[in-house]
Amino acid sequence: MATIRFTLNGKPQAVDVSPDLPLLWVLRDALGLTGTKFGCGMAICGACTVHVNGTAVRSCSMQAAAIADKNVVTIEGLSADGSHPVQKAWIEKDVPQCGYCQSGQIMGAAALLAKNARPSDADIDEVMKFYICRCGTYQDIRSAIHRAAELQANGGVK
Amino acid sequence: MNATRRGFLKTTAGLVVGFYLPGRGEVAAQGTAVTTQRVNAWVRIGTDDSVTLMIHKSEMGQGTVTSLSQLLAEELECDWKKIRTEFPGIDPAFGLQGVFGSQSIRTGWGPLRNAGAQAREMLLQAAAQRWGIGKSLCRASDGVISNTANGEKLTFGKVADAASKLTPPTGLTLKNPGQYKLIGKSMKRLDTPDKVTGRTKFGIDVRVPGMVYAAIARCPVAGGKVASFDATKAKAIAGVRDAVQISNGIAVIADNTWAAFAGAKALEIKWDEGPNAAFNTPAIRKAFTEQTLLPGASARRQGNGAAALDTAGKKIDAVYEAPFLAHAPMEPLNCVAHVRPDGCDVWASTQMQTGISGIALQLTGLRPDQITIHTQYLGGGFGRRAGTDYAREAIELAKIVKVPVKVTWSREHDLQNGIYRPASVTRFAGGLDAEGWPLVLTANIACPPMGGSGSFGGGRGGGVDSTSVEGIADLRYAIPHMQVDYHSVTGGVPTTYWRAVGYTQNTFFGESFLDEMAVAGGKDPVDVRRRLLADVPRLLGVLNLAAEKAGWGKPLPAGHHQGIAVVNNIGSYTAQVAEVSVTGGKLKVHRVVCATDCGQVINPAIVEQQIRSAIVFGLSAALKGEITIDGGRVQQSNFHQYDVVRMDEAPAVEVHIVPSTEAPGGMGEAGVPTIAPAVCNAIFRATGKRIRRLPIQGQELA
Questions:
Q1: Is the ipTM reported for this complex over the cut 0.90?
Q2: Does B185 share its domain with B309?
């Protein structure tokens, strides 16, 4: 066991876990933040995506020790009230079906828009093809990302 | 009655109206309500103006929470923004409770509107009494009752208590379609806001005080048993507490899910694999194919198939094959159970509440009123969660550990210890008349039984499993002679429903072979279908609509080719035209035009969502989906070996809905069956290559 200190959704956090415990299980089991989802455990499906120092990472494949002193943002911390442009666009387009993969999709899309404010369809596909949705919401996700880009251009990312 | 329902009925003041949602097979053909004194669903109007719909349904992405609420609100005239849905604990006395077969709207259509009307009339009556006027002078709209004589207003909550003293009226006349305000409107899904902020609680998100985590090592061969095991290495892992044997394997109990997974992997287990270890995919394919040469159980006899084949002007035959498939919902299977001397609670994202309740009764020996099943949101179901294996294990383990325990399946467990959509083989023969039109069709199907979760195959020739022949035995085409035979076979793995059930492979087989018959007769595939569906107006309607909207027969972009397929399943009618190109052997599905007639549409946006979803789901199977067996073991372990369609492979989908006031059909499964044959028929037109085995991936398309 080790005490890992990091910033979680804007607040200092300390957690006593085995240093090799993946971040996914630090969040879900040790800290009770269940918005980040387990899908494959092999960094293939994207359901567990969170931001570490602003970059989208697969939390199932990042050990607790690696997040020491880092800034971690999960779906619960993307905005205080669901007002991030990506979340607003997702609501406007009614993207989720079962919804299970959507935390990861949203975190992936938010990271994409932070780097590329006006992505083309091809830009979106190139990033989002690594996120599996078994309900097949891809067409809706693509259209919501374009809408989020518009919202972001009008209001900026919080 | 269990605690959850007691709490619902007692704790809040206001009006509660109970009603009955019939199960599968209980709905009259026209979708009318069943007359019954039983109650298994409730609507509550709180004194705070809240409206709560309590229904035993499972939300797994199909939008049922939203569309069922629309049915209620249409008649209730409540404020749409104030509707909430709760999933009640379930009672064995209710009869079968589960969500499969795309039936929620079909069974809820009458009862939910009627319950809404009953509650509305009681609220109006209570307001009329308060004002001392006749009820006919009162109007309800948006959760407010108006006195049309003097303009006074009361919200529903203000009269809810008084209304609860009244007797629910019967024989109410429901609105006609011209009066609908919500039915037929694309209301926003009620579950979206929580799903974009991580707040929705799926089964895997359940946390109960004192809960421990578990993972189970199961025999890699279905039906195998533990001979002996050594947990020394597993227990040496940080966070692992214990390892115990249960009937389905060895459970590792730990402080977190990750340690439980690692512990389960570190177990050293000697298995008694049993007879299923003898199965492998090449031998399964050979055995199924050979079986189709023999006469089977009769699934359809119309005219005289054998004699007609002898006299047909032209004959063709073909053998079609589909593989085993996993469901692979994004939320891996899981279940939380807590068994105490005086009670049992089970938290599960499930499609089969009744089955779990029965297992809890059997395993705990408790009384029905001591058992509560807490239905959670489902991270996909697709039929896998109509099984109950995940709950049986958790309840069995909870009895041993005596504290709440969450059993989580890894993705490897999900794919390798699953219950599968059966592999199957169908042998067709077709004959054409002198003018080249279909005269006779015979089909000989070898398929492990789909109906019957976890079954290991039935006796050969011993009857017909109706779900294994649907899609061929119930073809609507006016072909004078049709004969369908069925063989129940086994591939050594348990089999079950998969989104769209028998139609998932049989519509691929049947619609592809019909295309072959059209080509053999020198006919256009749409013309052949038009002629054979002349007496099935709704199927003909979607065929014509899809062909028109897709521009069938009109010039296409260079290298693009179209294929078409139709299906009538779950009370709905669907046609799809797929537009593909094959360049250098590489297939691209560019566009799918789908026409659907699902009767009265409740929420068009949700219908369109379900079709887009079904097309991606069906395309994943058509292009890539395959579970193979070697030594009785499933060879695919995770998404790198069981890949699905990704965003860059998803076609643009256009949906066209036929306006209708017929009783609603199902939608969750309607769009799945036709995508594989539409794509394969398009591949034939592009390349001359007929795809007779799925998946397409790995086959030469030149």
A1: yes
A2: no
